[in-house]
Design brief:
The chain is of the alpha/beta class. It folds into two domains: 2-130, no CATH class; 141-402, Glycogen Phosphorylase B (Rossmann fold). The protein is 42% helix and 13% strand. Helix 3 (20-34) crosses helix 6 (103-120), helix 8 packs across helix 12 (244-253) and helix 10 (198-210) packs across helix 16.
């Protein structure tokens, strides 16, 4: 327990010490319950954002199914649940202790989650395999009916193909303040280079719409509505009809997602939907949960030396890891990010569409480029190459001199 209070203020410590009797009582109850039904406790990040909420829950539920063990699953989340519809879905599988509970209850579980995490949190060494299993979460008939009605309202015919387009936009991060209950202030992220403008992607959406694919723009907070003069198959759901449940049902039923630095990929992944990641600063390392069960295509954001305009080789980017996502790091070494072009984004989206439809055939040379890209990452950290994940073949061919 001393580890829990290390570095904490006196006020923080006193507030938590006052619930010590309750901690001991709940601890005893958990130990007794565990004799009859395995208990699983996890302490989530204080950040309280959706990506830190759904990923561990889904994977641990799949792990429980694989082991044929029904957990009493308790999630401790000191901040607010960022999406009430997600909370509704996952409460069917677990006890979620978040801001809906009084503070003294949350303080109790905050201590317990640290004390008991090693005892009641099963490791997930096989998380890549878990992504390839059937989803552990299911939607109710009413939720599915809501999705059908939403698609009809958006003007998407029944059985028509549509994709979800989600970008990291500055307005979203500018809106995350402490008074919103997220447990942190993220307004500083509204000015970093990972924020994207919709223009490049709107050009891509128009080309996809011309191919007969509906494109649904998603996002909880966006910079501005899409222009009124646009292709009729481009739907601005984020500006006109966005809802928390809508995010879930759209992600669960689309053909694939085209996402860039935003958390909407979670709504896709928990139902094993294919994803094309664009403007991706890094390619997932072993401790990341980005190697998904469905088809996944990555389009890497390159980095350029501002002095000589040379692009940084993939092997150097691999060694830098997450540093490339830091504007301060790039500025310190005279570097700048190079956003993906509309042509690169479009090609990667078409590749995904063809892959899903069984038309994507890679030549021996293209497969060799894939292998060379993987080999550019240090062996101790890189993800294992698998049949579900590809770097955009056209992108690798275009920049093969960086391998």
């Amino acid at each position: 327990m001393l580890k829990f209070f290390k570095g904490r203020s006196i006020g923080y410590t006193l507030k938590h010490v006052t619930v010590s009797p309750l901690v001991l009582l709940v601890w005893l109850s958990i130990e007794i319950t565990n004799l009859f039904r395995p208990v699983f406790i996890v302490r989530l990040s204080y950040k309280g954002r959706i990506t830190q909420y759904m990923v561990p829950m889904e994977l641990h539920l799949r792990n429980a199914n694989q082991l044929n063990r029904k957990y009493l699953m308790i999630f401790v989340m000191p901040a607010a649940t960022p999406n009430e519809a997600v909370r509704t879905v996952y409460r069917r599988y677990s006890i979620i202790v978040d801001s809906h509970f009084p503070n003294f209850i949350r303080r109790t579980f905050s201590i317990l989650s640290v004390l008991l995490k090693s005892r009641f949190t099963p490791a997930l060494p096989n998380w890549q395999e878990l992504w390839q299993q059937k989803p552990a979460t299911t939607l109710t008939d009413n939720e599915l009916k809501f999705g059908e009605e939403l698609l009809k309202k958006l003007g998407i015919p029944k059985d028509a193909e549509y994709i979800c387009l989600g970008l990291k936009e500055s307005a979203y991060y500018a809106s995350i303040t402490l008074d919103r209950g997220y447990g942190q202030d993220l307004r500083h992220e509204a000015s970093d280079s990972k924020n994207l403008e919709i223009d490049r992607y709107l050009e891509v959406a128009t080309q996809l719409a011309n191919l007969g694919i509906y494109v649904v723009r998603v996002g909880s907070v966006v910079n501005a509505p899409l222009p009124k003069q646009r292709h009729p198959k481009i739907i601005d759901y984020a500006s006109t009809d966005r809802s928390e449940l809508g995010d879930i049902v759209l992600g669960a039923a689309c053909k694939f997602g085209l996402v860039a630095c935003c958390g909407f990929w979670i709504f896709l992944s928990f139902q094993n939907k294919p994803i094309t990641f664009c403007d991706q600063y890094e390619f997932g390392f072993k401790n990341d949960i980005l190697s998904l069960g469905a088809q996944t295509i990555f389009l890497i954001k390159l980095v350029r030396d501002k002095k000589n305009q040379n692009l940084v080789p993939f092997s150097k980017m691999a060694r830098g890891g997450r540093n490339w996502a830091s504007d301060d790091f790039l500025m310190r070494f005279g570097l700048e990010p190079v956003p993906n072009t509309p042509e690169e984004i479009l090609n990667s989206a078409i590749e995904m569409n063809d892959w899903i439809d069984g038309r994507l055939k890679l030549s021996k040379y293209s497969e060799d480029l894939q292998n060379r890209f993987y080999d550019s990452y240090p062996r101790e950290s890189r993800l294992e190459k698998n049949q579900f994940t590809k770097i955009s073949p056209s992108f690798l061919q275009k920049y093969q001199d960086l391998l």
